[in-house]
Amino acid sequence: MNPLTKRSENYSKWYNEIVVRSGLAEFSGVRGFMILKPYGYSLWDRMKTILDKMLKLTGHQNVYFPLLIPKSLFSKEKEHTKIFSEGCAVITHSRLIKKNQEELIVDPDSKLQEELVIRPTSESIIWKTYKRWIQSYRDLPILFNQWGNALRWEMRTRLFLRTTEFLWQEGHTAHSTEKEAIEETIKILNIYTNFSEKFMAIPVLQGIKPYMDKFSGSEKTYCIEALMQDGKALQMGTSHFLGQNFSKAFDVTFTNFNGEKEYVWSTSWGVSTRLIGGLIMSHSDDKGLILPPKIAPIQVVIIPICYKKQHPPTSIHEISIKILNSLEKKGIRVKYDDKTIWTPGWKFHEYEMKGIPIRISIGKNEIQNEKVEIFRRDTCEKIYISWINLKNSIPKLLDEIQKNIYKKAVQRTQKLILKSDHYNDFKHKINHSGGFIFAHWDGTKNTGKKIQEETEATIRCIPISNEKEKGKCIYSGKPSLQRVIFSKSY
Amino acid sequence: MNPLTKRSENYSKWYNEIVVRSGLAEFSGVRGFMILKPYGYSLWDRMKTILDKMLKLTGHQNVYFPLLIPKSLFSKEKEHTKIFSEGCAVITHSRLIKKNQEELIVDPDSKLQEELVIRPTSESIIWKTYKRWIQSYRDLPILFNQWGNALRWEMRTRLFLRTTEFLWQEGHTAHSTEKEAIEETIKILNIYTNFSEKFMAIPVLQGIKPYMDKFSGSEKTYCIEALMQDGKALQMGTSHFLGQNFSKAFDVTFTNFNGEKEYVWSTSWGVSTRLIGGLIMSHSDDKGLILPPKIAPIQVVIIPICYKKQHPPTSIHEISIKILNSLEKKGIRVKYDDKTIWTPGWKFHEYEMKGIPIRISIGKNEIQNEKVEIFRRDTCEKIYISWINLKNSIPKLLDEIQKNIYKKAVQRTQKLILKSDHYNDFKHKINHSGGFIFAHWDGTKNTGKKIQEETEATIRCIPISNEKEKGKCIYSGKPSLQRVIFSKSY
């Protein structure tokens, strides 16, 4: 196998190669659409399982709404419509027919009375329905979540990071008070933060999007932002406080405790397969993926050492199965790979590429010494552990690996949390180190745009825990009350 | 609450009411599209979890392919195209714009170079991809499955039974020999049968579809058919042996062990949210749903007996929580409903409607006697069990309920497995008792069509375990070698 392109040579090429070579995903024949291969899907499934549990523990329930949204519904919330109508899949007909017994064409007679749009997000169809479901304060709160696909036409697509169709969860909640809706928005932001840091081992900053970048139709968009190894930011998830915008657009009121009618307050929030892009760019190295044990579909791989095309000797096979069983009993996700078509060396490379946290290899020496060789993917260290200690050592080692991967990401990120007070210094930092650059901004859309044009950096967010600090806008020199975070981003 | 329409009065109305009133699903504002509500989605999720495990244990892996299929791909396999192009969602444009600052219209400038179709099933996009993935016998078999949505335009829709968009799993496998592909087709048929009988408690007949009803593009379609309470059949799942049809249409060959090129053999198979329709119509009664414990999202509900708008007395609350915890420790899915806005009586009705297998109610009497009242939803019997026996009795009772529901369905079905040798008798049976009617058929499409026109009955399948038996076609009198199964169906 050829080695991967090095990160230092071409980060973007390295990324594309790693996605394909580790067997996570690849582009399909349909432009902008990707195929999640078994390894990629099982990773997403694992992430789903964890996040779903967190959402259920906080009272959320799953539902499923229609894929298609009639144009008339889609156009109810003006700001929302404006953005999402710019790139959406419009269904106009319901039949294809043969022309001249040959070519398949759209049957003009099958034109729909009203065009339908594939959901770019489901606020409109959901709020149309909530109108039917919500009458009284007793019907609130509604805390619903949906796992599914969505579609936004993208010009420049990248595997996981930006695809026309993506898999995600979208939460849509309805509340009787503004306070409760804001609390829900923050609660979800904290769930996303925990999920990202504790499971994906990716440290994030919590913030609020500047007004010009908020979700169309929302009052305020909260986000978590992470820093990739190349110093660029990635938005990992968003949680929107929607105010009463959708309840007003869809005329959804409820009778409160005092018998008065009020518009409902609401939130929406989502994370998508994009997270996998962030995962890859946070931890992986020039040998391939590095996956944190808590989300790795396979945590330990056992490889018997023997000649190609030969089955392992009975002694090796038996001890491998014993180890497999004892680890599985501990709830560890283990794979025993005794396929005979590949050499052990080939398998070593393959599982390093796939980022399996621990590799156990067992050959004749190991049998003699009653030890196994352990390879840690995160540090690429080899250690030897005796058989009898394995079932206690492996869970501990997995914990240690999880912590180490997170620690490395935290250290890397902290080094790139920078301040800048002069535009030249700012430009230098953006172009050389990258990172989250805390700088003053005059609060205008125009300044944000100018800085982006000149440096490619955008305002990622106003940090939620920001201290007020008077200063001057790095670009215009106008007064500013707090620093915001700039970065180039994906 | 008004009682449900009785099955004996209007079966179809009863069905629609039960779906909505039990909180499983309802139609959305988009014609033919349904909304899976939390209870319906959790039921589907439970079914998914079980079936997914069965598929993984037999070596299948999950993947995800694009939602949209380019028209040119869609038209590769001729027979397949013919059927699915008749009712499909065709995407022709990628943008909506404002006309006169007001109405939202399709932007004519956004016309796609090639139209895209929402997958009615994914053979075409998958076989286009398999061409890239399959070169050698070493790449085979491919045993992939996909959980997702699909869309087929339907004129007459019914909740769960026939909806334009549906959720399902679709398996797509590739093999090096015909024998292996046929074995896979049968293996899946057996998995579906087990899933239906052991978990959903629905007895099924395994059969082969008559040639005119096979899946378009397949060589042979295997199916499982179940009998509903009104004597009509429901197709619960299909498993298709595709021969080399798709590998030829997409030119997918592999180099075999001897270095020769061959076309790949394949199968596809699926079950959908339609199964939930079968579940409802198999077991439920005039009081509401009856769910087999193994797939019930909630197996036991605990209801404290107290006045409306009052919290239960501490003694009742404490013992309820104790029971909740001890049952959850046993792996039972329990809900404790101490909401104060409803009376216990209202809750009793509600959970009977939802088909929760066991209801435990705890009031002052129960506290005094250290017993609880147990209500079995399947038989509507009440029994009393002392606290200390609960954690052993409940798992046993759940098993018993599962078995009883299945036994009832088997008995009901067996009574309606009928033979008929005369057309008048056949018509009488079809119209009065309904059921699976074993009768001789001359093997022609025309006879099948005539019988359907005159009786609404169709040939459900040729039973897989059929004994050869010479006879005369019930309609044409022409010779026949075996009986086939006729029934009205959903």
UniProtKB/TrEMBL annotation, chains A, B:
GO biological process, one term: prolyl-tRNA aminoacylation
Entries under SUPFAM superfamilies matching the protein: C-terminal domain of ProRS, Class II aaRS ABD-related, Class II aaRS and biotin synthetases
Molecular function, one GO term: proline-tRNA ligase activity
Domain Aminoacyl-transfer RNA synthetases class-II family profile as annotated: residue spans: 36-292
Transferase among keywords: no
EC number, UniProt record: 6.1.1.15
Localization of this protein: Cytoplasm
Keywords for the protein's UniProt record, in alphabetical order: Aminoacyl-tRNA synthetase, ATP-binding, Cytoplasm, Ligase, Nucleotide-binding, Protein biosynthesis
Gene3D superfamilies in the record: Anticodon-binding domain, Bira Bifunctional Protein, Domain 2, C-terminal domain of ProRS
Record text about domains: Consists of three domains: the N-terminal catalytic domain, the anticodon-binding domain and the C-terminal extension.
Function: Catalyzes the attachment of proline to tRNA(Pro) in a two-step reaction: proline is first activated by ATP to form Pro-AMP and then transferred to the acceptor end of tRNA(Pro).
Assembly notes: Homodimer.
Family classification: Belongs to the class-II aminoacyl-tRNA synthetase family. ProS type 3 subfamily.
Protein name: Proline--tRNA ligase
Organism: Blattabacterium cuenoti BPAA
